[in-house]
């Protein structure tokens, strides 16, 4: 089963996936090692990932946990979207020295639940976990439940940060 952990940058994907025993694949690393970085986004100052290239390189990896903010684009059986309160996300991204523009862009995407929407267009089994609080053990337990098919209460739609936007004006 291919499980994909996705979410806006700063929602805790790398932190949590390092705690998952076994086979989690960091897609940024995988893309770099497999020649799937194509071109350069000057505005965002990041290399662009070639999704088609990743799909081909991952073709035989059916039992894996793929981790990255575009993992939901990669033919997943289960997508788990990490969600974080946008104001907390802002603090985390500031610590990364992201530009104000990039922070805002990610806060908006998170408030609107863009990744969840994208995932729902591609996959029937989409779940959301709130990673605003720091309880890593609890997050790991929820992931386990979802994989075991006992995560109904975490189905996409259980988290809504759209009202946060009203506080920004
Ligand atoms: N569950 C959590 N609670 C509180 N802080 C967290 C949690 N998960 C991650 N963080 C913090 O948030 C920041 C971003 O985490 P990271 O795992 O790098 O996110 P991502 O890989 O999704 O971009 C880090 O500073 C990390 O320490
Ligand atoms: Mg990361």
Describe the structure.
The protein is an alpha/beta fold and 169 residues long. The chain has one domain (2-158): P-loop containing nucleotide triphosphate hydrolases (Rossmann fold). It contains seven helices and seven strands. It has helices at residues 13-17, 27-33, 51-57, 86-95, 100-112, 114-122, 136-147, and strands at residues 2-7, 24-26, 37-41, 46-49, 64-67, 78-83, 126-130. Helix 4 (86-95) runs antiparallel to helix 5 (100-112). The radius of gyration is 16 Å and the shape is globular. The protein binds adenosine-5'-diphosphate and magnesium ion. The site of adenosine-5'-diphosphate (ADP) has 15 residues, from helix 1, helix 4 and helix 7.
Helix and strand layout, with pairings?
Elements: E1 2-7, H1 13-17, E2 24-26, H2 27-33, E3 37-41, E4 46-49, H3 51-57, E5 64-67, E6 78-83, H4 86-95, H5 100-112, H6 114-122, E7 126-130, H7 136-147
Parallel strand pairs: 1-5, 1-6, 2-5, 6-7
Antiparallel strand pairs: 3-4
Adenosine-5'-diphosphate binds at residues 7, 9-15, 92, 95, 131, 133-134, 136, 139.
């Amino acid at each position: 089963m291919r499980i994909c952990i996705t979410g806006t940058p700063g929602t805790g994907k790398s932190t949590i996936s390092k705690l998952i025993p076994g086979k989690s694949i960091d897609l940024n690393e995988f893309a770099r090692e497999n020649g799937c970085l194509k071109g350069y986004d000057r505005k965002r100052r990041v290399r662009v990932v070639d999704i088609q290239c990743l799909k081909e390189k991952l073709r035989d990896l059916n039992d894996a946990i793929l981790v990255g903010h575009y993992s939901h684009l990669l033919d997943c059986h289960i997508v788990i979207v990490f969600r974080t309160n946008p104001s907390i996300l802002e603090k985390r991204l500031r610590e990364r020295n992201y530009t104000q523009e990039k922070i805002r862009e990610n806060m908006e995407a998170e408030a609107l639940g863009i990744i969840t929407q994208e995932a729902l267009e591609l996959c029937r089994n989409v779940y959301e976990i709130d990673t605003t609080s720091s309880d890593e053990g609890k997050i790991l337990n929820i992931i386990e439940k979802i994989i075991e098919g006992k995560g109904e209460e975490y189905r996409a739609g259980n988290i809504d940060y759209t009202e946060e936007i009203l506080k920004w004006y």
